[in-house]
Amino acid sequence: MENFIAYNPTTLHFGRDVLRTLGQTVNRYGKKVLLVYGKGSIKKNGLYDEVLKQLESIGAEVYEYGGIRSNPVVQDVDAAAAIGRENMVDVILAVGGGSVIDSAKVISVAIPVEIPAWDFFSRRAMPRSAVPLIAVLTLAATGTEMNQFAVLSNHEAEVKGSIGSPLIFPKHSFLDPQLTIPVPRNYTAYGIADLIAHALEAYFGKGEDATLTDRFVFSIIREAMEYGPALLDDLSNYELRAKIMFAATMALNGMTMYGRASGEWGVHSIGHILSLIYDVPHGASLTIVYPAWMRLLRDRIPHRLAQLGENLFNVRDPEETISRFEDFFRRIECPVRLKEATGDQANPEEIFRVMVSNKAATYVHKLDHDDYRKIIELMM
Ligand code: NZQ
Ligand code: ZN
Asked: Which intervals hold domain Alcohol dehydrogenase iron-type/glycerol dehydrogenase GldA (predicted)?
């Protein structure tokens, strides 16, 4: 087993009506609040009013930044950080999915410094301090609610990149599965795919002798495969929403990494390129890349694929294991080939060029330029 550090300071408030204590929790950090949210789902479903009521109850002074888009961009973060800085906010309250919470994480470390937030992503600057962040999660998928990562796009630099810093763990995250009931069917499925992909990125990382941690991975994937399709048939089922929300949080909060030196993250790096160029939703990008990535690496990591297949599907043949994943992604109506997500728009040369400039998938199982061509072909 590899050495590891387990550290996770986020307090999770999980379950029905946990928002009842949101106001008093915010109040522990101060009264000047920067409220960050997305394109309007929280206004449609009444959550915005509920949050404002909680903030009113503590006499908060509320500044707002709404309009964070899915596949969020750094420009919004800079604009929101300017508002936070100007008004010297005490605390940030992010209400939304991964895009909103990721943006708020970067806003939290950008407020204390007068630099473009992208400097953190280009590694020109390191986060040094952060305004406390509280999150209310409305979509189960990314795990951002209990981890130290944030992902943003910069279309000028042609990069969708990530940062990781212990400073950006949310102080508190409120997870009421009821809030995810309005998430439409397609994004519910992308979330299920995303959480499975997080477990897989950990599993294919560096550190193959973390047997207990491998079992966490198998359990998380089994949970998603058993209850995910049931949820898609019954979108307003609280218990199923709760199971998927819990699984998504556990898939990327450190637990699947104990005993490993690092995760793989190659599939995510390629998925980010599809999102960057074609605005493919994050989870959908992963269901396109994963089958192709596993096929490309089939003969390089046959033992890991066999072990995965044996534990999940009771099969040892790597190709059979890959087909089972592909079938599952199809069953939850996620795309498994590029054209299913982009139509005729997808351009192999363009994807190749951006993969080269981003040095995609060069972390644990390193792909070279020939591999890039092959994986693009496999995705088409
Ligand atoms: O913008 P609004 O109106 O809120 O609508 C959103 C958006 O259109 C909507 N939505 C969210 N909650 C809803 C809802 N609609 C109805 N009811 C609700 N309760 O869903 C759409 C997608 O939201 P988004 O936040 O973009 O989705 P997700 O949570 O999947 O986040 C994706 C982003 O997170 C990054 C991805 O790359 C992507 O940019 N990731 C972050 C990670 C992390 N920080 O650890 C890890 C992941 O691998 C991932 O890379
Ligand atoms: Zn992901």
From this structure: 9-177
pLDDT in tens, 185-219: 999 999 999 999 999 999 999 999 999 999 999 99
Q: Best substitution site from 35, 41, 107 to test ligand 1's pocket, by max atoms within 8 Å of Cβ?
A: 41
Residues of the chain with CATH 1.20.1090.10: 185-379
Q: Each residue of 307-338: pLDDT tens digit?
A: 999 999 999 999 999 999 999 999 999 999 99
Question: Would you say the CB of residue 143 lies under 6 angstroms from ligand 1?
Answer: yes
* 291 contacts 329 by C-beta, under 8 angstroms: yes
161 lines ligand 1 (CB under 6 A): no
Architecture of domain 11-180: 3-Layer(aba) Sandwich (3.40)
The answer to whether 34 and 89 are in contact (CB under 8 A) is yes
Closest CA to 74 of 184, 7, 177, 162: 162
Q: 268 in ligand 1 pocket by Cβ < 6 Å?
A: yes
Q: Give the separation between CA 83 and CA 320, rounded to whole angstroms.
A: 53
Residues of the chain with CATH 3.40.50.1970: 11-180
Residue 205 — left, alpha, or beta (φ > 0 → left; ψ -120 to 50 → alpha)?
beta
d(C-alpha 19, C-alpha 53), whole Å: 11
Ligand 1, closest atom to CA 45? 17
Domain 185-379 of CATH type 1.20.1090.10: yes
Cβ burial, residue 6 (10 Å; 0-12/13-18/19+)? exposed
